[in-house]
What does this fold into?
Amino acid sequence: MSILVYIEQAEGKVKKTSLEAVSFANSLAAQTGEGDVVAVALGTIGNEELAAIGKAGAAKVLHGDESKLDAGVIQAHASAVAQAFNHIGAKTLVLAKSSLGDAVAARLAIKLKAGLVSNVVELPKTDGGYVVKRSIYTGKAFAETSITTENKILAIKKNAIDLKQDGADAQVENFSVSIDEADFASKITSTERATGDVLLPEADIVVSGGRGLKGPENWGMVEEMAKILGAATACSKPVSDLEWRPHHEHVGQTGVKVAPTLYIAIGISGAIQHLAGVNSSKCIVVINKDADAPFFKAADYGIVGDAFEVVPKLNEAFKAEL
Amino acid sequence: MKILVCITHVPDTTSKIQFTADNTKFDSTGVQYIIGPYDDYALARAVELRDQASGKLTVLNVGEADSEPTLRKALAIGADDAIRVNAAPKDSFFVAQQIAHYAKEGSYDLILMGRESIDFNGGMVHGMVGELLGMPSFSPVMKLDVDGSMVKMSREIEGGKELLEASLPLIAGCQEPIAEWKIPNMRGIMSARTKPLNVVEPVSQETQAEASKYSLPPAKGAVKLVDKDNVAELVKLLKNEAKVL
It folds into this structure.
């Protein structure tokens, strides 16, 4: 018996969040005695990239090498993962919570008659039962959830576990996916993705700007800080509503929820709806000229000062130190 | 075109989250309940589409009697009638089964809901309903236009979006900016009182992953302030104390 992990890729590169899911499954398998970890990767991906999934803790990678699966066609991916699950006789599927992962997991829950828990924040308790801790109320609380079915699906939140990097290369095996044309009835006609940048939901460091920056023309220093730190850029809801920044950068209650190691907020007051999107961050730094900004209450470190003075100086200090 | 919009009845986004009964129940004392913000976007788009196609718009909630004011608000915003499945929403699978049953019974062309509820944040119900009904499901959808039986959508992906084409019937989990939230006007509020709100019973009691116990994150310590003229100190703290660089 093995635990299956669904791997997501973009342009042939395995997503880091999927590797975290592999590490999670590796620890879970050690705990439950479910054998080793098998990953299933779909679409065109190089062998070296696939073997490297082993470093995160997978023994084997099933490669559904079918170019029709390069795009994240939800139903087709769900069908392919179900085939892999049955092929290896798995009882547990682990995947990273994401735009595609969520959609695929939900359909698989029905296909596999599996109890599904999403936003999982730590390894489940499996001594007498199967209790999974998940984040709820947009990071403001946790729930312990009991899965009562034999098959189980866990969609894990970013940073639920440390990424392992010391495993051996995985054995890559070709996996022939039986394609149902009906799964391709809906078509992805085009994909627009910010290229060359660090993707916000997966970033370890996020630099975020608010209305205090006064206009889109002032984002240069935010982008510079992101570049120095290898971070993703983000913004508050008013900023995306004003179209200073694209919607996919909006962090908050109704936007992207992030869980980076470091979140730097510049000129954001910290409305409760914004905090809901960032409260899972490990460390929060707030830069705001208003000492009474509510964000300081949620921050680990803060600087009270004008962003236009502080940020350029901070960028120099980061450059000097890194 | 027959449209079904599924809504959640959830605490307002500014609510203080607390639990009672030895942390086994949500404490609703003083909490204001609203239509889930994502569901509200779905509803707003559905009203526009219904008006374009002179179709019919039904709104559904799986919930107990206390969710009726929320359904009435959806009627005031523009839904033609409402269904309340009389049961507490125990888990995603439980809710998906109820929706699938009543959606099939009503043979809707388009089923919309929010990308996720803001209480449990699962984001799974639309996909489950899709699989139960053998319909395609898409989420999170930011744009949705219907032309005959053809649907054009834009779906958010990490760091961007993809454009999709599909045909009815289908299911979509919605988010902004699919439409602007609609505020009910006086005429809507008056007419909502007399629009049909049908209470039906759950068709299954089966659950797979029910929550049993709740907890709050540990309280945050006080913020450590660094002088604005000594920003290098912050960099040192991030590197050596927080160890996040």
